[in-house]
Structure formats: structure tokens, C-alpha cells
Amino acid sequence: MIDLYTFTTPNGRKVSIMLEEVELPYNVHKIDITKGDQFTPEFVAINPNSKIPAIIDSDTNMTVFESGAILIYLAEKTGKLLPTEQKSRFQVIEWLMFQMASVGPMFGQLNHFKRFAPEKIPYAIERYEKETLRLYGVLDKQLSDKEFICGDYSIADIATYPWVASYEFQGLTLDNHPNLKRWFETIQQRQAVQRGMAVPA
Known about the structure:
- By secondary structure, the chain is of the alpha+beta class.
- It has helices spanning 10-22, 41-44, 67-78, 86-116, 122-142, 155-164, 178-188, 191-197; strands at residues 2-6, 26-30, 54-57, 62-65.
- The protein has a four-stranded mixed β-sheet with strand order 2-1-3-4, covered by helices on one side.
- The radius of gyration is 17 Å and the shape is globular.
């Protein structure tokens, strides 16, 4: 059994989508980051960095934090959504790292400065919106001849989808990136994705 410690953020939803896709049973523990739950001693013992998501796998007595690491762990546990052939495997890992290093941080900063910052700073909004749109372009080009980011559906798609799903929240559109829009709409229809995006209730 997996215990999932999570909240309603793109990073949290990556893991609930993955758990739904690989059909592993799991318990949800809501860590309300707006109330500081991530700083409690109990949660810091699970993730010293005080960030969601994190999991505890009672089958293996493993605790794993960082969403990308959790996706790899669950893929290896189940033998799903991460190729075993070296070239294909590392392509998926490359695009997972692209999400972790670029998409998440840049989209997250745009979310912050556009929606949550107590002071509107035009320079910051322009900077992160421009970079978000550039990353849309990178993904759009990658998807120009592929159904999914690496050809077959994988943890690279699962990691990226919840961040792209925030485009309306950011006041943006996917209309200028037709390949990305088509990819987004395809994944949006997956029942496991819909269930995962609704966690925690």
C-alpha cells in the first residue's frame, strides 16, 4: 500500500495521476500547504525539504520525496510508463528532467507573480510569461511528429500535463501551439488523469 502526502498543486497531481495510471492502491494524506502543514515535525520526517508530494510504500518500507523521483520509483515498481531499453529510457528521463528543471520552476514563478504576489511586478510577470511561452514552443516542436512527448505515453507526459493544465489560471492560451494543444486535449480525456487531478478531494 502507498501512502501519498499531497495537495492540490501540479507537483502533487503528478503522483496521484501516476498512481491511478498504474492502478496501485493508495491512501491520501492531505498536506495543506496554505496552513503550513508541510512544516510539521511529522511531515519534515518524511521530507526534510518540507515540500509535497511524498510517498511511503509499506510494501518495501521506502519513503520517497521529490515528484520526479516518485514517478521513477513507481514506474520501476510496476514496470509501466518508463521504457527499459536504454535509449528510450533516457529520452523519457531527459524530458522528465526538462519538466523538473524548466517547466515546473518557470510556470510556477509565473503563477506566483501573476496570481499570488502581494505586489504586481511587471518585470517579473513579463519575464516568466515569456519563458513559459518559450517552453510551450519547445514542447510544441517536440510534439510535431509524436502523439506523446517521447512517442509512447510515459512519466514525461504525466509530469508535464498538470503544469500545462494551469494555462487558463495563468491567463494564457494553447491556441498558438497546436501540437501542444492536441496533446493536452488527448491526455485530458484519460480517465486515470481525470481521477488523479481530483486528488486530494
